[in-house]
Amino acid sequence: MRQDTKRRLIARLIFSGGLLLLLFGSAFLLGSLADISRASVLVAFLFIIIGFGSAFLAIKLNKRSLYLFFAAFFMLVGFFLFLGSLNILPIVLSQWWPVISIFTGLALIPSGWHRHGTLKPRYVVSAVAFIVLGIFLLIFSLDVVTFSFKQFMLNWWPLLIALAGLVLVLISLSTRNKSEDAGR
């Protein structure tokens, strides 16, 4: 019993030390930036800190998968904004907004894994759908293709209906196989 209390104390000290280092490092980084907007770096670090707070809540509370989703999402957004504030990525929100959909899909994967201990089709299909949708919209947002989104929709709308049907069939097949296995 005493060793369990000792482990908890050590875990809390490590977490507190990591949080302090994160805050001090952030403060020193803000002080050392010359040509970079300190406000944009501060916003990026606020997203990262919210992500770490959500991760802490995921560990402490029963609704872990929801907080794990928020932790992954806010950390991804924070790191993305941080790369933009350092001018590593030329971020213009009017062009890069589909990345939010990609981050949503990426955050669904660890959330679903944690909740069920394995990759479930409903999480994987949703995650892949968000990621594909984000990439698809990002292609048009960054003007990678020569035609407009409107032209694409006018010509290829039946493909979207067929893809939606394919997704529904895959979900149906995966749930049917599991229910048949459980009946045996």
Jot down its keywords:
184 residues; mainly alpha; 84% helix; 0% strand
What does this structure look like?
- The protein has 184 residues and is mainly α.
- The chain is 84% helix and 0% strand.
- It is built from 7 helices and no strands.
- It has helices at residues 2-32, 38-60, 64-85, 93-96, 99-116, 121-141, 149-183.
- The longest helix is centred in the last third of the chain and has 35 residues, at 149-183.
- It is flat, with a radius of gyration of 21 Å.
- The termini are far apart.
- The relative contact order is 0.07.
- The mean pLDDT is 79.
Helix-strand category: mainly alpha
Would you tell me the overall average pLDDT? 79
Largest sheet: none
Number of distinct beta strands = 0
Shape: flat
List the helices and strands in order. Answer: HHHHHHH
First and last CA, distance: 43 Å
| Share of β-strand residues | under 5%
Radius of gyration: 21 Å
Are there runs of 5+ residues with pLDDT below 50, and where? none
* Tally of helical runs: 7
List the helices and strands and how they pair.
Layout: H1 2-32, H2 38-60, H3 64-85, H4 93-96, H5 99-116, H6 121-141, H7 149-183
Helix pairs in contact: 2-3, 3-5, 5-6, 6-7
